[in-house]
Write a structure and sequence with these properties.
Layout: E1 2-4, H1 7-15, E2 26-28, E3 35-39, E4 60-69, E5 75-84, E6 89-91, E7 95-97, E8 104-112, E9 118-127, H2 152-160, H3 167-191, H4 211-216
Antiparallel strand pairs: 1-3, 2-3, 4-5, 5-8, 6-7, 8-9
Amino acid sequence: MVQCTNYDLRLNALASGWPLPVAFTRQWDRSGKIGVFLYERFGATRMTWPTPVDREPLHTRSVTFEGYARKDGLWDIEAHLRDTKPFFFEVPGENQWQPGEPIHDLRIRLTLDSQFVVQDIAMAMNRIPHDTCPQALPPMRGLIGSSLLKGWRRTLDAQLGGVQGCTHMRELLFNMGTAAFQSIGPRLRRANPEKAPPHLGRCKTWALDTPLVQRLYPLHYQPNPKKD
C-alpha cells in the first residue's frame, strides 16, 4: 500500500491508466490542502516528508528557470541563482554581507532555435563574493552553436569545466536544458505531433514501454517482451 501526500501523484496515477477509483481512497486533512491517497496495487514505501528536529537555518539558495516564446520565432530560457544567509557573513579581506543580503546573484539567458541550438547567450553576475568571479564569463560565449539535445553536459564540461568557468553558472546551464524541454517541447509537439518529444526514454515514467507512453504517444510506444 502506498500513501501519497501529494495531489499530483493522483493525477499521475490517472495519466498512467491505473484503475480508479476502486484502488484509491481520498481523505483530506483539516487544512483542505493535503490529499491522502491509498493505492493498494504497488508495495512501494510511504512517501511523506518527515518533520525535522530542532535546527538552525544556515543558508538559502533560490534558483528559478523561466521560458519565453519570442516574437522572432526563437526561444529564451532564463536562469537566476541567489544565495543568502540569515546572519552576518564575511570573507576575510574581501567582502561582508548583512543578513539576507545576496552573496551570489547570477543570471543567464540562452536564446535557442527550435532545434535547441544556442543562438546567443547573455549572463550577469550582479552580486559575487570574489572580484575574480567575472573572469569566468567570457568563455561562456563559446557555447553559441552548441546543442542542448546532444551532449550538453559534455559540452559544458569541455568548455567551462574546472578552472575554465564558474561552478554555479555551470550548474545553472546544465539544468537549463531541462527547463528548455519543459518550455519549448509542448509548443513543438502541437506543431509536429508525430515527432518524438525529447523526454521519451529519459526517465522511469517516460520509458517507451509504459502505459503512459502507449496512451499519450502511441506512435513511439515500444512494448518490452520481457514484461509480457
